[in-house]
Amino acid sequence: MQKNQLPSAYDFAKLEEAIAFYTRTVAEVAKSRDYSLHDEIMRFKRELHERIDREYDPAAL
Length: 61
Hints:
The chain is mainly alpha-helical. The protein has 2 helices and no strands. Helix 1 (15-32) runs antiparallel to helix 2 (38-55).
């Protein structure tokens, strides 16, 4: 992984792992106020929402 480049949301084996990574990354960026990853975070977020739409099963609740 290059500097300032996040993995794809599809690189994670489980959807929960991708969500946890996203949450942790956003918290770290907000805490450090380093917004250089903004575009990468937005790309990851779009991919994550696409994956959620594909894999989410409302009947599982």
